[in-house]
Amino acid sequence: MTTTATGFAQLTGTYTLDPAHTRIGFVARHAMVTKVRGAFNEFEGTAVLDGENPAASTAAVTIKTASIDTRNAQRDEHLRSNDFLAMETYPEITFTSTAIRQTGTTDFEVTGDLTIKGVTNSVTVPFTYEGAATDPFGNVRVGFEGSVTINRKDYGVTWNAALETGGVLVSDKIVLEFEVSAVKNA
Fold first, then answer.
1. Residue of 136, 147, 148, 146 whose CA lies nearest to 183
2. Taking CA 155 as the corner, what is the angle to CA 166 and CA 124, rounded to the nearest 5 degrees?
3. Stated pTM of the model
4. C-alpha atoms less than 13 angstroms from C-alpha of 30 in its C-beta half-sphere
5. Nearest residue to 183 via CA among 140, 138, 131, 145
6. How far apart are CA 125 and CA 67, in angstroms?
7. What count of other Cβ atoms lies within 10 Å of the Cβ of residue 144?
8. Burial tier of 66 (Cβ tally within 10 Å: 0-12, 13-18, 19+)
9. Lipid/polyisoprenoid-binding YceI-like domain: from which residue to which, for each copy (predicted)?
10. 53 phi and psi, to 5 degrees?
């Protein structure tokens, strides 16, 4: 089954994120000259897709902050600490949709409440529907990709260090990246 952009009706149902084929990542500027990329390796999420009325769809994701991975153990420990994500006090980052709007043939805006370190703000993530297929095991899969830039200070993540040359060690703006593969529940 391959679904064209106009064939959303057949996708109606409840889906579970497939962590083995989904990436929830981020990008931050480091020392104002390069980018550090990372991801969260442990998360769970569901989406209820309404193919006839996309605005009636919903999505929710829970991310384990301890699963942060930037491929550098020392940096990851610092990110888990009270300087950044304070994982002991705030073990989860959550996102719960509040509105979904179709903006183009395969484009959607998913607005929701993003909670980091106990602070909740509304964010709108533009997503592109990448398609649907039935995998070799008979599961219906859908794919979506999106990204949004947030200011980490809006969530109380304020630690930084000044550079001798001016500027700071860690950018305030963080790009959140979502490459989602979800499997339709039986």
1. 136
2. 105
3. 0.91
4. 9
5. 140
6. 22
7. 22
8. middle
9. 14-183
10. -140, 80
Q: Which domain holds residue 177?
A: 8-181
Q: Residues 72-94: what's their mean pLDDT?
A: 93
**CATH classification at residue 135:** 2.40.128.110
Q: Quick one: tokens of 104?
A: 């183009």
DSSP state of 18: -
CB 184 within 8 A of CB 140: yes
**In this structure, is residue 186 part of a structural domain?**
no
Q: What is the DSSP letter of 182?
A: E
Report the C-alpha gap between 155 and 42 in whole angstroms.
21
Residue 2 lies in a domain: no
Distance CA 56, CA 90 (A): 30
Task: For residue 177, give the H/E element and its range.
Answer: strand 170-184
d(CA 48, CA 70): 31
- Identify the pLDDT of residue 1: 43
In a domain, 106, yes or no: yes
Which residues lie below 8 Å from residue 22, measured CB to CB, with a gap of 6+? 43, 45, 178, 179, 180, 181, 182
Q: Report whether pLDDT(68) > 60.
A: yes
The number of distinct structural domains making up the chain is 1
